[in-house]
């Protein structure tokens, strides 16, 4: 590999500038900033992680309520890595732009009750709770856009696909919240592909903890957990990925988009140059500007 890189440099035309490696944001670059706070927090269960933060724009709501984003944090489906507060900076940015945010939390695979089915049941209950509280917080539920980062990208897409869950699955409900559009920021939608990719930043063992062990009654653990198995679900999907993302390999985005399109769904991949994983949820970044453009387009 090193020899190939040296040969490539020697083959450059004399005088040609060598492209510099972009300086990427690190997690402390984001998390050490002063953290904005939500307007309200509601509980959808008894566990301290079964919470939703509500971010409300100022001023009077439109007649049908504020345009609404349902937000899902990542962290490799693992609570000790991240919780909903990781999304506070972009939630605040949307609030300032006139968009309400329903930022959900859930029990990760490292918490009692997490994994299968608990993690999935949590995000489903947190999502459906939006319908219960919409009137109180003046939320427009006609076109809810789901936005998820990293592992949250998988969960946001899964929420949009709930109408396709097998009826014999413990995760199936008759009338889930309808998601109008999904924006995945460096997501991991294909769990089988993630489990087969040791170069992904979450590792492969966490997928097994998330989906549970196969059994005679449930031989295919991806049947109701991995988004490609639920295609097509008839919801527009935008995937925003960093060209320099060292945590989520770009092929996991390109591979999923190919699956979605082949199944007949509308899916687009937006590859952002000079962008890693953290930039995707940094409000000043070009990647987030693109995500916001896509959010507004979907809300309209």
Write up this protein.
The chain is an alpha/beta fold and 300 residues long. The protein has a single domain, classed as Alpha/Beta hydrolase fold, catalytic domain (Rossmann fold). It has nine helices and eight strands. The chain has helices at residues 2-10, 27-31, 88-96, 118-137, 151-160, 191-195, 205-211, 251-263, 286-299; strands spanning 40-43, 51-55, 68-72, 100-104, 144-149, 179-185, 236-242, 267-272. It has an eight-stranded mixed sheet, with helices on both faces. A hairpin with a 7-residue loop joins strand 1 (40-43) and strand 2 (51-55). The longest helix is centred in the middle third of the chain and has 20 residues, at 118-137. The protein is globular. 44% of the residues are buried. Mean pLDDT is 93; it is low at 1-18.
The main sheet comes to: 8 strands, mixed
Class in CATH? Alpha Beta
Q: What's the Cα radius of gyration? A: 19 Å
Structural class: alpha/beta
User: Helix-strand pattern, N to C?
Assistant: HHEEEHEHEHEHHEHEH
Beta content comes to: 15-25%
CATH architecture: 3-Layer(aba) Sandwich
What is the oligomer described by this structure?
single chain
Shape: globular
**Ends distance:** 48 Å
Which descriptors would you attach to this protein?
single chain; 300 residues; alpha/beta; Rossmann fold; eight-stranded mixed beta sheet; 9 helices; 8 strands; 31% helix; globular; disordered N terminus
List the topology elements.
Layout: H1 2-10, H2 27-31, E1 40-43, E2 51-55, E3 68-72, H3 88-96, E4 100-104, H4 118-137, E5 144-149, H5 151-160, E6 179-185, H6 191-195, H7 205-211, E7 236-242, H8 251-263, E8 267-272, H9 286-299
Parallel strand pairs: 3-4, 3-5, 5-6, 6-7, 7-8
Antiparallel strand pairs: 1-2, 2-4
């Amino acid at each position: 590999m090193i020899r190939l890189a040296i040969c490539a440099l020697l083959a450059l035309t004399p005088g040609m500038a060598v492209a510099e490696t972009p300086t990427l944001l690190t997690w402390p670059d984001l998390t050490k900033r002063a953290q904005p706070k939500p307007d309200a927090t509601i509980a959808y269960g008894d566990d301290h992680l079964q919470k939703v933060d509500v971010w409300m724009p100022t001023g009077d709501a439109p007649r049908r309520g504020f345009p609404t984003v349902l937000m899902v944090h990542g962290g490799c489906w693992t609570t000790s890595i991240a919780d909903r507060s990781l999304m506070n900076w972009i939630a605040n940015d949307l609030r300032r732009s006139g968009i309400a945010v329903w930022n959900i939390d859930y029990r990760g695979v490292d918490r009692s009750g997490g994994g299968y089915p608990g993690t999935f049941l949590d995000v489903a209950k947190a999502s459906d709770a939006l319908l219960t509280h919409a009137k109180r917080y003046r939320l427009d539920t006609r076109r809810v856009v789901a936005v998820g980062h990293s592992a949250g990208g998988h969960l946001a897409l899964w929420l949009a696909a709930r109408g396709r869950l097998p009826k014999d699955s413990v995760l199936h409900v008759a009338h889930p919240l309808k998601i109008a559009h999904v924006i995945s920021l460096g997501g991991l939608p294909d769990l089988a592909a993630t489990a087969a990719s040791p170069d992904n930043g979450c590792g492969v063992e966490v997928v097994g903890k998330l989906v549970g062990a196969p059994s005679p009654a449930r031989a295919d653990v991806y049947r109701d957990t991995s988004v490609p198995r639920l295609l097509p679900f008839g919801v527009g999907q935008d995937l925003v990925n960093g060209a320099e993302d060292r945590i989520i390999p770009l092929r996991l985005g390109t591979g999923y988009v190919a699956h979605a399109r082949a199944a007949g769904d509308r899916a687009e991949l937006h590859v952002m140059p000079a962008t890693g994983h953290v930039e995707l949820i940094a409000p000043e970044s070009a990647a987030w500007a693109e995500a916001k453009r896509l959010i507004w387009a979907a809300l309209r």
